[in-house]
Amino acid sequence: MLNLLGHLSKLFKLRMVHIDGNVFGLHSGIIGAFLMAFCMLLTAIEYAGTPIECYCPTLPESVVNSFCWVDSTFSLRSLFNVSYNGSVIYPGAGPGRGDRKYRTYYQWVCFLMFAQALCFNAPRLLWKAREGGKVPAIMDALNVRSAITHDRADPRSQMVDFLVVNMNRN
């Protein structure tokens, strides 16, 4: 009786089957999560705060900020160490023309980071959808077969034999 229960316990033993490796899990899980977290952080700063502030005293502030949001702004290299009335608005900011250094604000970075996060997670989602629980089912069937037949042969050869016999049955 105990011998029979021992064989039955092998049938109902819970085993976790991993369908991907460590590198694949790191690639699709952790890196994708980091990209999504940084995307959310950047989006919160960009849309909840003030992502860019431009200064032009002759025009309304909202118009200038909208223009700077869409177009690039610049600073003058000749004015990097110059102060006006004892204060510096920004190194290189001031009136005049000269050697310009353009600064472009990329407002689309958060959308690109979101797309990257999706691209990192897409292979795992596709793999799980296409795999459809076949690997755990094969492992369970192989365990049941070895428990019933008491066959202690090489697990790899058993797996190959099982796959050859059951090819195109799912």
Automatic annotation (TrEMBL):
The record's subcellular locations are:
Cell junction, Gap junction; Cell membrane
Please give the start and end residues of each transmembrane region. Answer: 21-45, 105-127
Q: What is its main location?
A: other
InterPro entries (UniProt xref): Innexin (IPR000990)
- Kindly state a single biological-process term from the GO annotations of this entry: monoatomic ion transmembrane transport
Asked if Cell membrane is a keyword of the record, the answer is yes
Instruction: Tell me any Pfam family this protein matches.
Output: Innexin
Q: Which PROSITE patterns match?
A: PANNEXIN (PS51013)
| GO cellular component, as recorded | gap junction; plasma membrane
UniProtKB keywords = Cell junction, Cell membrane, Gap junction, Ion channel, Ion transport, Membrane, Transmembrane, Transmembrane helix, Transport
Q: What is a GO molecular function of this protein? A: gap junction channel activity
User: Could you tell me the membrane topology recorded for this protein?
Assistant: Multi-pass membrane protein
Report the protein's function: Structural component of the gap junctions.
UniProt record similarity statement:
Belongs to the pannexin family.
Q: What is this protein called?
A: Innexin
Organism (species): Amblyomma americanum (Lone star tick)
Gene giving rise to this polypeptide: inx
